[in-house]
Amino acid sequence: MIVVHHLNNSRSQRVLWLLEELDIEYEIKYYERDEKTMLAPDSLRQVHPLGKSPVITDGDLTLAESGAIIEYLVERYGNGRLVPPPNTSERLRYTYWLHYAEGSAMPPLLLNLILNRFGLGDSQAMSAFVAPQIKLHYDYIEGELRKSIWFVGSYLTAADIQMSFPLELLAMLPQEILSRPSIGEFLERIHTRKAYLRALERGGKYDFANSIP
């Protein structure tokens, strides 16, 4: 049985969504962030040395990192669902977005979060680097979603699930999301999917599901 070690308001929500889309049985072990630091509890380190979420266990396997988890679940349990056929241009595009989410889309948002938390929202680092990087990447994503309603084409793939978290995080910044209607429409599409709603019901508190202004 797959066990998802699930932290509230975290990337692990998209793992729950993927499992619901694949209609796979799973269990959830719940963890809560510290209200002051917003960090995961130390108990997660008993599952994985880094003490971060998402982490899944599946028999003797313990696996961290969203992208690795998504690839494992799709390959192990997907039976060809939510992934384009191999050796196609769509498959290459799928792989690109699967890695782009954490490798390129998330870093400027995390820097924005950290700088603001430490009172550096008006710093030179924000204006000279972080804000321009947010604009660069999310204007690019907006342009791609104007071409197609999903990241790989006309149907949902696991790449869309992986990309959901940075876009939901972006939507917490009203000035950023209001100028990018295609991203807003993407979020509205995923937030009405039955599997997404089932994942919310099982996962509990997830502030980013209602983040569109």
UniProtKB/TrEMBL annotation:
Alphabetized Pfam families for the sequence: GST_C, GST_N
PROSITE patterns with a match to the protein in the record: GST_NTER
Keyword Ion transport assigned: no
One GO CC term, this protein: cytoplasm
UniProt domain GST N-terminal: residue ranges: 1-81
Keywords, comma-separated and alphabetical: Transferase
EC numbers for this chain: 2.5.1.18
Record's catalysed reaction(s): RX + glutathione = an S-substituted glutathione + a halide anion + H(+)
Domain of life: Bacteria
Keyword flag Transcription: no
One Gene Ontology molecular-function label: glutathione transferase activity
EC supergroup of this enzyme: transferase
Protein family (similarity comment): Belongs to the GST superfamily.
Protein known as: glutathione transferase
Annotated source species: Tolypothrix bouteillei VB521301
